[in-house]
């Protein structure tokens, strides 16, 4: 039977696995963007017409841009790479949550920072408001496991302090 500390550590690790997995999937799926959006425009007739039109417009822009200026997709490649690197960053709190709580806090700050970026840059770039809200949903979704992990890390920290134990290498 697991101790309460082991149960809390397991919850933290599940939260970190969700974050790592989400960042990895976000990164891996940013490389074949034209292919993915093309598939969506072909296979998602159940979506509202507004979204279908938006995705169709995005696909046309990606296809045309990639044909004429393929090097512009290099920026998306770097975006994908950044997501993969950020996934690696969260291995720290998976291994040693109390020692790496700052990474959880960094993730929470980044989750909140999605909102001004989506609304400011989205407005400047002419992104429809419904898409800006979709982008913001990633901040909300990410915040949930980060908050749960942070709360549980504080529990662990409290137990260690109460027992007069230095933070162990778990």
- The overall pLDDT, averaged over residues, is 94
Distance between the termini: 18 Å
* Helix and strand run: HHHHHHH
Say how many strands there are.
0
Sheet-strand content, in percent, reads under 5%
Using the alpha-carbon principal axes, give the shape.
elongated
Helix content: over 70%
Number of domains: 1
Secondary-structure topology with pairs:
Blueprint: H1 4-28, H2 33-43, H3 49-68, H4 73-89, H5 91-95, H6 101-125, H7 129-162
Helix pairs in contact: 1-4, 1-7, 2-3, 6-7
Summarize the structure.
With 170 residues, the protein is mainly alpha-helical.
Structure description:
- With about 170 residues, the protein is an all-alpha fold.
- Helices cover about 80% and strands about 0% of the residues.
- The protein has helices spanning about 5-30, 35-45, 50-70, 75-90, 90-95, 100-125, 130-160.
- It starts with a helix and ends in an 8-residue tail after the last helix.
- The relative contact order is 0.15.
Question: How would you describe this structure in keywords?
Answer:
170 residues, mainly alpha
